[in-house]
């Protein structure tokens, strides 16, 4: 029997459910590049409806969804996008908007809650009277929930405010909504209301929603025409993609309703960590499915802890030289959470005992 692994590295690690696999096998498909795949068309129409936008486009990944969205809005040479210094687009997408799209990033500091100060966004907008020197600001990007801040939610009030700034300055607003459903559930705000101010949104199907592959870009019908061309340009035009959309349909139907439980389990995990004195965790920062915690004992490093947990079939990821991240998803059970906490306690004991032993060895002069 396969060893049970509690995989808390990310919510991207879920395996397709039996219902997803059955839907994939039974999917009615055709050539999506020719616009003929019935399952893709049905799914895209449903996602547009859910998100309150006119149109939607299925793409292979969240990275490609963000890249295509930025390039579609910034389709003139010398364009600049305002985005968070700690945003996924800026930190984890290989600078694709610049290296592939020629778009210049203008970063604004992300606050601990994932927002960027509105006055700093306004200050970052290039004035047109500096045209000889300045790129042209065309786009503002937000990220909701904000991954590197621990899955924090951007409120609808904040999002609307940034939308007003964009409109007042003739700019567009894109939301990296990889986990927008987590934000919607945690805030208790309908997802279409949460993104109303945005001109485009990218939504990951392969995270909390649990689909094996894909993201969706939503926006106006006129806007989506450009992403469709850019998707093909980037090699993302796929043929019988209904096989993948069928799984995503099941995820949207079955898994969005489980996100609140992911958030509850994350809080249980954080509460358990709080009781272990070798770690520090800010319970108020656990708003959705992510738990970031810091090492409070110099004898315990993120790498040592993750290694010791891995030996107990619990997987996690260091996020810095002093912190570790757990990401909960619907394939993590309550007993998995309790098992993880037990393994953490054992791992701490093991690391400290090993450290004490090596300490005794070094004071005794034996190596
Ligand atoms: C906030 C955010 N945006 C975009 C992405 C990119 O998605 P993908 O991994 O599908 O390229 C991720 C992570 O995967 C993410 O966490
Ligand atoms: C690391 C990042 O690319 C991924 N989106 C995650 O959160 O796991």
TrEMBL record:
It is an enzyme of class 4 (lyase). The modification N6-(pyridoxal phosphate)lysine is found at residue 207. Residues 7-294 form the Aromatic amino acid beta-eliminating lyase/threonine aldolase domain. The keyword Membrane does not apply. GO terms for molecular function: L-allo-threonine aldolase activity. SUPFAM superfamilies: PLP-dependent transferases. It comes from the Eukaryota. It holds the Pfam family Beta_elim_lyase. It catalyses: L-threonine = acetaldehyde + glycine; L-allo-threonine = acetaldehyde + glycine. Its cofactor is pyridoxal 5'-phosphate. Belongs to the threonine aldolase family. This is low-specificity L-threonine aldolase. The gene is LOC123105984.
